[in-house]
Prior knowledge:
globular; six-stranded mixed beta sheet; Structural Genomics Hypothetical 15.5 Kd Protein In mrcA-pckA Intergenic Region, Chain A; aminoacyl-trna synthetase; five-stranded mixed beta sheet; Rossmann fold; alpha/beta; 3 domains
Amino acid sequence: MSTYKSDLLRVLSERGYIHQMTNAEGLDALAQTQVIPGYIGFDATAPSLHIGSLVQIMMLRRLQQAGHKPVVVMGGGTTRIGDPTGRDESRKMLTDEAIEENIAGIRTVFEKLLKFGDGPTDAVMVNNNDWLGKLGYIELLQEVGTHFTVNRMLTFDSVKLRLDREQPMTFLEFNYMILQGYDFRYLAKEMGVRLQMGGSDQWGNIVNGMELGRRMDGTELFGLTTPLLTTADGAKMGKTAAGAVWLNEAQLPSYDFWQYWRNVDDRDVGRFLRLFTDLPLDEIERLESLEGAEINDAKVVLANEITKLVRGEEAAKAAEATAKETFAGGGAGEDLPTLSVGEEGMRIGAVLTAIGFTQSNGEAKRKLAESAVKLDEQVVTDPGFLVLPDGPDPIKISLGKKKHGLLYR
């Protein structure tokens, strides 16, 4: 049971968002006495975020639900530099226009999950280029640079790992942590922000910003990180064999988004329901206790709830209807042919013939070249593509509109 007194930390704890926190007692006490503006930063390197960022967005939603103020910081300035955390190589430079377009695309998801406005707990979105872009280099070095030691900066994982692997790190990237630290100090001073949240890999950057605020302004700031989110089989969230699972419709159709959640590992159902839906905890406990084929009902609930939040109710209904039609309508469902591809997997060309969709490997190659073959609704054209389901759930294979089958390990 959670021992926190504030709604904010109680909810974050019960739903599994908390990994590390600075001065939990102080933050708990503050959350009971005032509205806390809290922020998370997002770089604008693509026109959409992917589901690896969804836990952070949901944390801002929880902040607002608990009566506090979410501040979404878009890294219009820091995107020009690139966060070296977890990267082996420098990020390519984007134009100002590309960054602005990316921010506009990313905002659409936040508008579905947060309430924006001018009220005390309404969310706001700001762009750190508005203040970082105005900093003169000499002034920055004089005012902020003196509070950072190179000795300490070299101990951060983002720097150390790159150096250990003998991968180059530019001086530009080395400055990223200084600018992120300055963001926290600026937001605290100008907007009353007291809390920065982020993934566990951001702990060093968050602590840097807290220390900078204390040294320069004497303000006590707070930091909170989420656990590194991986699936039950150890894979990083947000990536699949077919590519990133994007939050925006323009980058990934809603049916594919829905299917990702419908096909999660049985062991992840309860955790994902807590993190990514607003369902009550007692209902989540009921759903995660389902066993056998019934756990699939819980996965449909998970897929529907998340798709509803991120893509809208209509998208969720349409995706579920499409899935039912594909798997249960017109002689599908129980009657679908199945094939085990084994622990090592099987090449798609061989799969088509083995399951009886084509008469020969030559015919299989032709069908692939015609873009007539889909795996989980994704077109596959390479006959050498290795089919290997991640876990116990099957992959759906389709040839044209009428031939469907299920592939198991």
